[in-house]
């Protein structure tokens, strides 16, 4: 035994055995501390979720929908009323424009029949009136046929009423295809004399 203890290899084997024994004892002693057992974990598995269905048929939403429908109906009714009103305004505007055009036409016609003698032409018109007054009514009517209505009316303004009557009577008594036109012209000249601005000048 003493011989074995003195052997180096024996001492090495003995040291190795002691080390392994010490480690084995430490493992057994502290096994639970070094390697604790796994804890039980509660695992809950959820089944496949079904899709969520949203429902908007609540009382508030139904009430809101009805309110919107009512307001839309009111807007449409108001729009229809505005369209009718606009059409009525347009019709009234067209009628007013037509009346305005007719008034302007009548005014232009009336102004066309008004005879206004300027001061500078009175002397010449009196001379012509005296000249035509000395002619036969037939010759005077023939000459007047070559003059416009305004000029004829101005000349007649400076004639005496008897002479004017003879000339107008000649125009009304003329026979021929232009008889109606002469009658109309005689009436027009009479109206132009009536609308004379300053009347007869002597």
Question: Can you walk me through this structure?
Answer:
The protein contains 8 helices and no strands. It is mainly alpha-helical and 202 residues long. The chain is rod-shaped and about 195 Å long. The protein starts with a helix and ends in an 8-residue tail after the last helix. The model has no long low-confidence stretch (mean pLDDT 78).
Overall pLDDT score: 78
- The beta-strand count equals 0
- Indicate the low-confidence ranges by residue numbers: none
Structural class: mainly alpha
Spatial separation of the terminal alpha carbons: 190 Å
What characteristic shape results from the CA principal axes?
rod-shaped
- The secondary-structure element order is HHHHHHHH
Helix count, DSSP H or I runs of 4 or more residues? 8
What fraction, in percent, of the residue positions are helical?
over 70%
**Largest sheet features:** none
Oligomer: single chain
Strand content: under 5%
> What Rg, in angstroms, do the CA atoms define?
65 Å
């Amino acid at each position: 035994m003493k011989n074995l203890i003195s052997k180096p290899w024996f001492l090495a084997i003995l040291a190795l055995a002691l080390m392994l024994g010490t480690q084995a004892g430490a493992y057994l002693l502290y096994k639970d501390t070094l390697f604790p057992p796994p804890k039980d974990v509660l695992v809950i598995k959820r089944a496949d979720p079904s899709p969520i269905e949203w429902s908007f048929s609540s009382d508030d939403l139904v009430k809101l929908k009805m309110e919107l429908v009512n307001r839309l109906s009111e807007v449409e009714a108001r729009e229809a009323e505005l369209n009718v009103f606009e059409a009525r305004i347009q019709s009234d505007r067209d009628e007013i424009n037509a009346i305005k055009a007719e008034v302007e036409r009548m005014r232009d016609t009336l102004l066309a029949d008004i005879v206004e003698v300027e001061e500078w032409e009175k002397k010449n018109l009196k001379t012509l009136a005296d000249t035509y007054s000395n002619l036969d009514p037939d010759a005077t009517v023939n000459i007047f046929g070559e003059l416009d209505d305004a000029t004829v009316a101005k000349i007649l303004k400076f004639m005496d009423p008897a002479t004017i009557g003879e000339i107008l009577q000649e125009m009304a008594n003329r026979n021929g295809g232009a008889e109606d036109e002469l009658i109309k012209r005689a009436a027009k000249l009479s109206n132009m004399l009536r609308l004379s601005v300053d009347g007869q000048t002597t």
